[in-house]
Amino acid sequence: MSDTPHQAARHDRLTRLFHWSMALLVAAQFAVGWTMPDVHGTAPPLGLVLLHVNLGVLLLLIAVPRLLWSGARKPIAQVEQRRALAFIASATHKLLYASLIAVPVLGWLNANGRTWHVGLGNGFSLPAIAAPHTLGASIGELHSAWATGLAILIGLHACAALAHRFVMKDGVLSRML
After folding, report:
1. For the whole model, what pTM was predicted?
2. CA separation for the pair 130, 98 (Å, rounded)
3. Which residue numbers delimit the Cytochrome b561 bacterial/Ni-hydrogenase domain (predicted)?
């Protein structure tokens, strides 16, 4: 390949806005999630735990329209790459989208199991999707494990973007900038 990046089609502004706003929220969510105290029982969430719940709600409120937008818009032209890389990229994106929905939903289920109010604290509330139950801790562990998997996927995604920029020099990274 040449040292000059190919001119690749850019994603539209809304797609880029969804991507980068979610990236910032996910980074904040991981920082809060890893520094907040462990959650036990049904005591109402306070401080960092409440912030974690609120950020999760925001993520879900952005992830759903992002997924709908992604499915509704015409895909941009794909950069030519080997079939194996194209498959890995497609699979990783599907896992990222699934995880960006699943992790907040598992958090929502966990909160419902603990009888917590799930909302943004400004009068906006998500409905309960599960009755209070004793599985809160188990769902919380699944939420945490899946979030760790999401962090790994995000790391792979970022490494792939950098590889496209500095190794393959094919313009893929510039499509999202």
Report:
1. 0.87
2. 20
3. 10-177
